[in-house]
Amino acid sequence: MSADVSQEKITLGTITMAHGSGGKAMEELIRTVFVEAFNSNHDNPQLASLEDQARFDLAALQQQGNRLAFTTDSYVVDPLFFPGGDIGKLAVTGTVNDLAMGGAKPLYLSCGFIIEEGLPIDTLKKVVRSMQQTAVEAGVSIVTGDTKVVHKGSCDKLFINTAGVGVIAEGVNISAHNAQAGDAIIINGYLGDHGAAIVDARGDLALQNTIESDCQPLNDLVQAMLAVCPDIHCLRDATRGGLATVLNEFAQASNCSMQVDETKLPIRDEVRGMCEILGLDPLYLANEGKLVAVVPAAAAEKLIAVMQNHRAGRHSTIIGQVKALSKPVSKPSVLMTTGFGSQRIVDRLVGEQLPRIC
Fold this sequence. Notes:
There is one protein chain. The chain is built from ten helices and 13 strands. By secondary structure, it is of the alpha+beta class. It has two domains: 17-168, CATH 3.30.1330.10; 184-345, Phosphoribosyl-aminoimidazole Synthetase, Chain A, domain 2 (Alpha-Beta Complex), CATH 3.90.650.10. 45% of the residues are buried.
């Protein structure tokens, strides 16, 4: 967010093309919206310098681990605000969680804003304050960024890109390729809350419920899990495509069968009811605060106990186990034992259940 920050006051009401021009209006936008939020306590020296990049001491990073993790994601959710979160909270949470799923400790984020001309400044401020609040909760700093303004009609109000850097401690080796026969499959709570909350927030259906998005940072939960089980084999957050997609990715990468028990899947009655009305499958609904872990069976119960003592894992449970490939299914797959005792294949999602979900 580089700028020669002027103290001259520019009247702020709605975003205009001038706010993306690099002139005084943009300086004022950066100072009164982004810097004011992301450096409100004057404890963010990387951002305070307003250079074109954030700079870090490599020696300090090496004290925390021996590998860097780096990720990026973009957020185009509709609507911008929904029960349990907003696009700002989502942008920080999503990137923090992507880092955490590799066992990394997230440290620094960048943020890029694509803003439609005409967006109220108060709306932007609300989103940015939410980002900062979530960053504080996750223990990360937003240290650099960029702002672009496009003509009205060129995007839908606001798009955000965040990139993140984290550090992985020595000895941590989490990968989708690491699942082994006999491993336990664990999730940290209710499935489908985010997807259901977005559907409800769009207001296209006359449904009345109290479903809120599960949007939350998971990095602290992951660190607590690693403290008791450094040998977590696979870890991924079940975002777009939901649980079914994650399990299929694990099965394919590890050349094994993922077998889950339908009766052990935690799904709220409200989510299940909405899915029945709309013809959706909760296994494919997006989540923004749920992880799927594959761990050695011997460590599963101890891990569950630790997870259930954490605010982000109170409803953690074992939902199945990893099996070696064998007939009749001799290729990587996900099998679910239904409540009637039969088995069905849970395949990858075909098409798009819900667009603009994150």
